[in-house]
Design a protein that fits this description.
Elements lengths: L14 E8 L5 H11 L6 H18 L8 E9 L2 E7 L21 H8 L2 E7 L2 E9 L3
Antiparallel strand pairs: 1-2, 2-3, 3-5, 4-5
InterPro entries: Anti-sigma-factor_SerPK (IPR050267), HATPase_C_sf (IPR036890), HATPase_dom (IPR003594)
Organism: Actinomadura darangshiensis
GO molecular function: ATP binding; protein serine/threonine kinase activity
């Protein structure tokens, strides 16, 4: 005789999603829609969406991801502690850095926005490809 046992779902099990996007400006809205759908109800959703928007725009404007045929990948991790987003681009000549307020003109606010909204952020990689990571804790 086969017994079926009901096991409650673990509320602390982490969730993980990944999607690749074309390195074109019109894809940025799809990045936001991807995250908004997955993270509906997350308290800091607006901050996550704005950060992903800035990271996607930066990848398209400042890396090889924005060249013909370029791509970038968005990863989203969510667990009881909060959300971590990753954006991996195809690299470029410069390194991601926050500009000082004195250096800002028409542009250059992307990582300043990320720095202001994410609890933490960091990057790793080489000129051939980089990943930027931003964290958003769950609020009580």
């Amino acid at each position: 005789m086969l017994l079926a046992v009901s096991v409650p779902a673990e509320h602390e099990a982490p969730m993980y999603w990944r999607r690749e996007f074309r390195g074109r400006a019109e894809e940025v809205r799809f990045v936001r829609a991807f995250a908004a759908h997955l993270l509906a109800g997350f308290p800091a959703l607006d901050d996550v969406l704005l950060v992903l928007d800035e990271l996607a725009v930066n990848a398209i404007q400042h890396t090889r991801s924005g060249a013909d045929g370029g791509r970038f990948t968005v990863d989203i991790n969510m667990d009881v502690a909060g959300v971590i987003v990753y954006l991996t681009d195809q690299g470029g000549a410069g390194e991601p850095q926050v500009r000082s307020l004195a250096e800002l003109a028409e542009g250059g606010r992307g990582l300043l926005t990320v720095d202001a909204l994410a609890a933490t952020w960091s990057w790793s990689g080489t000129p051939e490809g980089r990943t930027i990571r931003a964290t958003f804790p769950a609020r009580g």
